[in-house]
Amino acid sequence: MQKLVVGIDLGGTKMAGALVDSAGNLVGPILKVPTPAHDGRAAMLDAIAELAGKVIAAGTANSGEWTIAGVGIGTAGVVDVTSGSIVASTDAISEWAGTQVREGVGQRLKEAGYNVPIHVENDVDAHAGGEAWLGAGRGARCAIVVAVGTGVGGAVVIDGQTWRGTHHLAGDLGHFPAVGAQGEPCTCGRFGHLEAVSAGPQIYRRYLALGGDAQVSGTRELETRAEAGDELAAQVYRDSAQALANVLVGLAYTLDPDCIIISGGLANAGKCWWGPLQETFKAQLSGPLENLELVSAQLGSTAPIVGAARGAWQLINAAN
Q1: Could you give the dihedral angle defined by the CA atoms of residues 112, 116, 121 and 123, in that order, rounded to the nearest 10 degrees?
Q2: Measured CA distances, 35 to 12, 86, 143 (Å)
Q3: How many Cβ atoms sit within 10 Å of the Cβ of residue 169?
Q4: d(CA 240, CA 273)
């Protein structure tokens, strides 16, 4: 009988889940439900367990004979993978810090008849795990994955294992001090961090702060203007890309990776962002690193589901 795990991607507004086999293939549909991000811990844990149950039920209807072997969860926040708990959270999910996710979801699933191991990790780590396993980092010994969207996150995968760090923050490059970010307010309350100039909302904020047209509705319209030749719009995209490129150069010389993978909403941006990103990055590399490329992620929104499932499979295999 085939064994499958449930992979869940938990975001601030929605969560998505699917069954995943040991080769990383999605089995059955991806199910999506709203995240009760501001309804408290119990509501969140209930929602995660309910989604897992729905994914299992959908698989029962569509996937032949199989058994559920585990659940992998990629969630926003700083995660202690050993305990499956949230060390620190973002504003996206209220009261999430301190939550024992593995214990809470595990108990709820046990009550529903599923006594299986639960793996919990940060959502960007899960995204990186998916890309390193089956996406743009497939076959790489060392892959750096950068997620640039509403925030800036990152993760490092070495020899198939996500490097977490002592404080569970390895790869969290959004709070690197960045050239060009001096005096810019970061979402963490400090100044001068990469996220303050490179995250999508911050690009838009800087455009308005520099005297941009208040009628511009958001980053999509702003990107269109930048591509069409609006100099101020192009400047804030250029500033974003150059600040990120400088940080990535530092990571390249520190870790000497096989590849650096760019994911998130800005990975879909046009030449106004990718052009200065690539140019600034390449201009500072020398010797053997001259051939190191920045590449786009390949798995899209399925990456964190697959990556969370990968963590669950590793947990299951380690126990056998």
Answers
A1: -50
A2: 6, 16, 30
A3: 14
A4: 8
CB 97 within 8 A of CB 50: no
Rg of the chain taking only CA atoms, in angstroms: 20
Residue 265 structural domain: 139-297
* Residue 59 belongs to a domain: yes
**Where do we find the tokens 């001096």?**
182
The per-residue pLDDT for range 90-110, each reduced to its tens digit, is 777 878 999 999 999 999 999
- Residues 6 or more apart whose Cβ sits within 8 Å of residue 129: 121, 155, 157, 162, 306, 307, 308, 310, 311
Residue 307 φ/ψ, nearest 5 degrees: -65, -40
Structural domains of the chain, count = 2
Alpha helices in 63-122 (DSSP H): 101-111
DSSP state of 129: H
More confident: 115 or 319: 115
Strands 85-88 and 78-80: antiparallel
Question: Tokens for 237?
Answer: 């995209």
* Euclidean distance between CA atoms 320 and 303, whole angstroms: 26
> What's the CA gap between 209 and 1, in Å, rounded?
60
Predicted TM-score (pTM) above 0.70: yes
Q: Are residues 84 and 206 in the same domain?
A: no
